[in-house]
Each structure stands twice: as structure tokens, then as C-alpha cells.
């Protein structure tokens, strides 16, 4: 019997393989604005949808990152990828580290885009409850998106992204992944890992800051570096897609 696979968007036909994992409010479609700038002769990109999201919306599951890591590796096997690099946005930063832990010998490089570190967001119960309330409240989703981009962009855009988030993710999946990036801590399992890592943050992101990234990612991965993207908050793939695509590929091509 053929193994069920998660849905994904594939772009390019190059020898270097890269898989991207989106954030809590996102899906594989988050990355579309980067596509015109990507070197599709040098790279093959797969933009992955978690169970309960996007092209995998109807796929049931436990909605954990251990499960997501197994799904990524099953997809990589299906595609014939022995080794590949990972990109993770926001909660995808935690997700890609679970993939690394599941198959360290297969991961060449990792890039985090406004990426939650291995310690999670360290939310207390009050803040966690506030985020749980967004499961059924699209206006609260929009407020978080607005805050995370520095409350400097058109409110209509935040509302649009919030509605797309609600449309493209199941409520049980959206709620299910939350504690795994908000409150779980796997930092002891990654500390000292030699995988090359590049962190991209937005200058207007109030949460994933240079200070936080230096105290977490840069402290735990000895071969990690940090780059700040100007005119961006927490969603550089929407805010500055050309700059992000260029910076990502400049780094990936160093390998």
C-alpha cells in the first residue's frame, strides 16, 4: 500500500534540495512571492504543508512536530532526497529542529526566518490562553499579525492574512501545534549541534529580536550567524520577498 504523504508545492529542478516549513498562521503558499527570485536551475524547493494545513488540510494526525518530522522524512524519501537543507518560518523554526534531531545525517544546512528557538516561546499559562483564544477568533489573529509586524502595515493586510490562516488551517490542527512551539523546550537536545545555521530577523519584529536570537540560536549552534532584514517585521516573505530570497540563496550557495 502506498504511504500517504503531506501536500506540498514544488518549485525548480536543480540539484540542491531545500524544504521549507511555514509558521503557525501560514501554509506552503506563504513562500509564493519568493518564487520569481529563486534560482530554479540550482535548487529544487519544496514548500511543505503540515497535517491540517493547506494541501494537507484533510490529513488527520496528532499535530505534533515529531509527527511533522516523520512526514518530512517520508516526503524526502518519496522525492529521492538523501540530503537536503531546511528553512523554517516562525513556529517552523521549532519544526525544522525536530527534523534535524530525527535525521541529523541528512540535513545540510538550516535557515530560520523570524524563527522560534528550540526553547519555544516560553509562554506562561496566561499568554498561552490568549493565543488559544485565536483559534475561533479571526480578529485576534489579525491583532497578533499586526503586532508582530510592528503595527506599521495596512490593517487590511493583517486581516487578510488572518482570514487566510483560518481558511487554510483546521481549528484542531491550529490548536494542536500551539503548545509544541509556545511552551516546549528541546534546547538541551540541540545545544552544540554543528549544523550550519543562518538566522534572518526583521528589524520591526518585536518578539524574535537580535537579543533573543543571540541568547538562543547563536548560543546553541556554534556555526550560526544572524542577519537583520530591513523594512520587515515577522513576515519578511510578504514584506520583503525579493530581499529574503536573495539573502537565503546567497547563504545556501556558500555550501
UniProtKB/TrEMBL annotation:
One Pfam family in the UniProt entry: Abhydrolase_1
TM region positions: none
Entry-linked SUPFAM superfamilies: alpha/beta-Hydrolases
Signal peptide from the UniProt entry: none
Span of domain AB hydrolase-1: 22-239
Entry protein name: Pimeloyl-ACP methyl ester carboxylesterase
Organism of provenance: Paraburkholderia atlantica
Amino acid at each position: 500500500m502506498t504511504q500517504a504523504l503531506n501536500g506540498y508545492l514544488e518549485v525548480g529542478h536543480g540539484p540542491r534540495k531545500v524544504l521549507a516549513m511555514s509558521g503557525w498562521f501560514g501554509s506552503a503558499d506563504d513562500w509564493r512571492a519568493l518564487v520569481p527570485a529563486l534560482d530554479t536551475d540550482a535548487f529544487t524547493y519544496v514548500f511543505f504543508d503540515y497535517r491540517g494545513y493547506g494541501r494537507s488540510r484533510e490529513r488527520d494526525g496528532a499535530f505534533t512536530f515529531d509527527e511533522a518530522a516523520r512526514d518530512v522524512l517520508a516526503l524526502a524519501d518519496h522525492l529521492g532526497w538523501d540530503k537536503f537543507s531546511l528553512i523554517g518560518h516562525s513556529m517552523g523554526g521549532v519544526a525544522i529542529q525536530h527534523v534535524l534531531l530525527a535525521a541529523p545525517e541528512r540535513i545540510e544546512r538550516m535557515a530560520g526566518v523570524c524563527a522560534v528557538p528550540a526553547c519555544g516561546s516560553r509562554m506562561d499559562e496566561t499568554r498561552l490562553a490568549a493565543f488559544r483564544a485565536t483559534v475561533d477568533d479571526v480578529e485576534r489573529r489579525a491583532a497578533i499579525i499586526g503586532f508582530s509586524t510592528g503595527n506599521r502595515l495596512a490593517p487590511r493586510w493583517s486581516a487578510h492574512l488572518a482570514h487566510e490562516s483560518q481558511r487554510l488551517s483546521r481549528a484542531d490542527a491550529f490548536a494542536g501545534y500551539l503548545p509544541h512551539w509556545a511552551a516546549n523546550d528541546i534546547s538541551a537536545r540541540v545545544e552544540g549541534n554543528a549544523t550550519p545555521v543562518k538566522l534572518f530577523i526583521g528589524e520591526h519584529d518585536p518578539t524574535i529580536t537580535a537579543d533573543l536570537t543571540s541568547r538562543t540560536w547563536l548560543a546553541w549552534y556554534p556555526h550560526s550567524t544572524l542577519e537583520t532584514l530591513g523594512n520587515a517585521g515577522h513576515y519578511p516573505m510578504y514584506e520583503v520577498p525579493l530581499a529574503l530570497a536573495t539573502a537565503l540563496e546567497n547563504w545556501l550557495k556558500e555550501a
